[in-house]
Amino acid sequence: MIVYLILLAVALGFFWFRGKYSYWKERNVPFVEPSFPFGSLKGMNKRHLAMLAQDLYNELKDSGKKFGGIWFFVNPVALILDLDFAKDVFVKDFQYFHDRGLYSNEKADPISAHLVTLEGSKWKNMRSKLTPTFTSGKMKMMFPTLVRVSDEFIECLECEAAKGVEVEMKDFLARFTTDIIGNCAFGLECNSLKNPDADFRIMGRKALSMTPMIFLRRMMAITFKGLARKLNVRTTDPEVAQFFIKAVEDTIDYREKNNIQRNDFMDLMIKLKNSEPLEDANSSQLGPITINEIVAQSFVFFVGGFETSATTMSYCLYELARNQEVQSRARENVLQILQKHGSLTYEAVHEMRYIENCINESLRMYPPLPNLLRETTKDYHVPEMNVTLQKNYQVLLPVYAIHHDPRYHPDPETFNPDRFNPDQSANRHPMAFVPFGEGPRNCIGLRFGMMQARVGLAVLLKNFRFRLSPKTPVPLKIVANSSVLTSEGGLWLHIERL
Known about the structure:
- By secondary structure, the chain is an alpha+beta fold.
- It has helices at 2-21, 23-26, 49-60, 83-92, 120-130, 136-163, 169-186, 199-208, 212-223, 225-230, 238-258, 265-273, 291-322, 324-341, 346-351, 353-365, 399-403, 422-426, 446-463; strands at 67-72, 75-80, 167-168, 372-375, 380-382, 387-389, 394-397, 464-468, 492-497.
- Strand 5 (380-382) and strand 6 (387-389) form a beta hairpin.
- The longest helix is centred in the middle third of the chain and has 32 residues, at 291-322.
- It starts with a helix and ends with a strand.
C-alpha cells in the first residue's frame, strides 16, 4: 500500500508539472522549453537575472508576437517582446497591471510592506501620501544638504588622491549617498564618509547582502506568494528591521519633543502620522499613517536611494574612465555651467545637459533594476494574439535586454551619451529606455536620484580626473545573486587632483 501511495504521488506530481510546463504550448504562445525545477531560470546561481532574461528575450524576440512564454520555477510568466505591448501594460491598461507581484508580509515582516511591494488600494493610498515629498519644490529645499555632503565627499577623496593610491570608488559613492539619504530621510548625520563602518553604512550593506539562500528564498516567495504569506516567511534581516525601527522611533520622538521641523521626508511622515494638513489640498482624505508604515517607507527610501544612485554613478565613472575624450567633454560642460552661475546651484546642475546624457547612457547600459515585474489583477485579453493572461499571473519587462537591443539602440555596447540628445530621444519609442519604470507606478524618487547623481558627478569631474586601474576588469563582471545590477570586486580607479 505504501509503495502504491508513493507511486501515485509521483504520478500526480509528474502530471501536475507536465500541465504547468505545457501552459504556453496549449495557448499557442512561443516559448523557451523549461526544465525542472527552475523553469527558464537555468544557471541562476551563476548568471544575473538580467542576462538570463536577455537570453530568453533574444531567443523569442523575432517571433513577431507581443510576448513569449517563460517559467519562474513552475509558474508561467509572460515575457514582453513588443514595446507597444509594454506601453499597454505599464500605461494604457495599467488598471489590469497595477501590482508588481512582489512579496510582502505586513504581519510577520512589517518592514517589507513598502511602496515598492504594496498592492491595490494600499499602494495607491501610500503613493498619494508620499508624492508631496518628491516635488521639485521639496528637491530644491534638500539641495543645500547635497552640496554640503558633496563638499565633505571631495575633502575625503582629496586625502586619498594625495596618497597616490588607487581608490575603490563604488564604496566611496555608497558612503556619499548614504550620508545624503541619512540627512534627507532621517535628519541624521550618518558620518559614513569619515567612518566606513558607521551604523547606517553597515545596515545598508546588510540590507542588500544576498547569499544564495536568501536569493532563493526571495525568488520562492515571489513565485509562491500565497504559501509564503501563510507560512509567515521573512525576507528581510531581523537585525536590519530592528535598526530601522529604532532609528525611526528615536527620530520621531526627538522631533516631536523638541518641535523640530526640517522640510524633509521624516517631516512629511510625522504630519501624516498626526493627520496634519499637507501641501496637497486633498491630503485630509488620505488618513493617518502608522509607525510600522513609516518604518517601511523610510527603509525603502534609504536602501533604494543610496544604492541605485551610487551604482549609477560608479558605472558612469567606469565608462568615463574608459573614454577620456567623453570625460573631458563632460568636465567642460560642468565648468562652463559653474562659471555661468558662479557656484553649484539647483538651477546650475539642471543645465548640465551633457552630464545628464552621461547619466542616462549609464542607466541604459547598466539599469540598476534590469527587470520589471507586473502582475495581472484581473483577466486581460491580448487581442492580436487571441490569448488571455489570467488573473495573478506575472508579466516581465526585460529592461536590460531592451536597453541592449540594437534595433532600438545601435551599437548598444558602446558608451555614447549623444544618444540622449533631444533629436535622437524624440525618435525613440518611449518604452525603449525605462530605467525608472513607466506609467503611474514608475519610481517615485527618480527626481531625487537624478539630482544626487548630477551633484555627485559634477563635483567629481570638477575636481578630479579618473583613469582605469588594472584591478577593474574590462568588461565588468556582474554579481549573479544580486537584486540590483552590481559589479564584482568594486570599481578601482586612479584619481588625479585637478
